[in-house]
Amino acid sequence: xxxxxxxxxxxxxxxxxxxxxxxxxxxxxxxxxxxxxxxxxxxxxxxxxxxxxxxxxxxxxxxxxxxxxxxxxxxxxxxxxxxxxxxxxxxxxxxxxxxxxxxxxxxxxxxxxxxxxxxxxxxxxxxxxxxxxxxxxxxxxxxxxxxxxxxxxxxxxxxxxxxxxxxxxxxxxxxxxxxxxxxxxxxxxxxxxxxxxxxxxxxxxxxxxxxxxxxxxxxxxxxxxxxxxxxxxxxxxxxxxxxxxxxxxxxxxxxxxxxxxxxxxxxxxxxxxxxxxxxxxxxxxxxxxxxxxxxxxxxxxxxxxxxxxxxxxxxxxxxxxxxxxxxxxxxxxxxxxxxxxxxxxxxxxxxxxxxxxxxx
Length: 360
Description:
four-stranded antiparallel β-sheet, nucleotide-binding, ABC_Ni/Peptide_Import, P-loop_NTPase, ATP binding, single chain
């Protein structure tokens, strides 16, 4: 399970229940935008572990690096993005582990769709507008299974559409003839065509109304139970993740600042940014409360200041927060299976008590 070399942060990210084996391990992944002597560091040694059968939610504001992480891990990052370090270990259904960043182009093409697939945010931008849905699904299947006859691939395409709740006769439709929800379901069907081990969903319901969001999420969760794949669900909507995810990793300014079970993040956030995200949407149950939000704006990653990137917006910032970058580690309460990058949890246990909002 372990690579030859582990940094402290990578080792901590592996903490979790031993019952489920890791299927995807992102270790110390770093990404820059731009070349030359002054690139923008958009991901800084990000480590995540996705376990078999798990739904891992990745949450954070726009621009925090969620999609960059997904594209870098699958080597779909367009220029001027540049992966500057790290490893992405994927375990296929045969139990063989491979670093996606070290695969040849041919090996990577074989692994995509078969072992790992991604559902992009904009279905209309992902589907070719001049080809029918049938051709786009069938061509993808045949490309990975050249021995399969096209008639068999068409039957598989029809089965996939029915799997996501679309009539098979819609195979003859063009993308513009489908509603937004149907196009997104087509993208999910294409991603599941070869029954991958890992499905990455990059804000798949952002452009849809809440009713369609609910339908698509319920279908994905049902398919996950039936087919047994693991999911990385990327969104800025923490309230959505509380309902569908097993664990949540919260990102800010290109780093993971907290990771824990979804119910624990919702009930007792430990990082001030996590608490701010939760205070930005109304509670689903209980009495009404005033929405607080998070003051200020995300930092400019091209002109990054020393210390914690959240310090200028944090209501609990201390002097050390403005000079030293916190390391992802155990909380002040010593909780198992929870990691947080905050100086409150490295100093509070020996100096001052935690704020009430972070010590419930």
